[in-house]
Amino acid sequence: MTVRFTSGSSDADRGINTAIVLVASTYALTKLSPSTMTTGMYGWTIFEILRYMPEHNWSVYEEAPKTNPVLSKMMISGVVYSLGDWIAKCYEVKPNFQFDRTRMFRSGLVGFTLHGSLSHYYYHFCEVAFDQTTWSVLWNNIFFVVLGFLHFEPPVTIFSEYHQHVSPQLLSPS
């Protein structure tokens, strides 16, 4: 048995969706705003607030992965998955604020709980694996060959020394 929640009128749904978007946007802007803008803006004009808010928000956005990398990636993925679902609905020629809240929430939840955290660890693993295998061999080869050229040695000498000294070291188990 499938339980379906049926919405009321389309206008009521769009009103609720519009309110959700406005509240979420306002919360995000005030959460990212400097404390001087939200607690006491003595002497600040609305133009100063609007001028400095994007700059400050960008610095907060850049700082977040440094202080808490997994949570910030989870939050970014959740927001992007939700927005992606909304964009997909707009692409289906639905009016802008006529989207399925539960579907959008499910998409955001998957992005938040799974994609953000798993991608963090997956890319970290790939970075370490690539760095310890392919990249280290490639970089050592480039380094040795370029040093030989900068020492004005002929290519035959460089490659014979490479096969004699460097290649066995790169292929040794420890």
Automatic annotation (TrEMBL):
Keywords: Membrane, Transmembrane, Transmembrane helix. The keyword Transport does not apply. It is a multi-pass membrane protein. Its main location: membrane. The keyword Membrane applies. It comes from the Eukaryota. It is found in: Membrane. Signal peptide: none annotated. InterPro entries: Mpv17_PMP22. GO terms for cellular component: cytoplasm; membrane. Belongs to the peroxisomal membrane protein PXMP2/4 family. This is Uncharacterized protein. It comes from Brachypodium distachyon (Purple false brome).
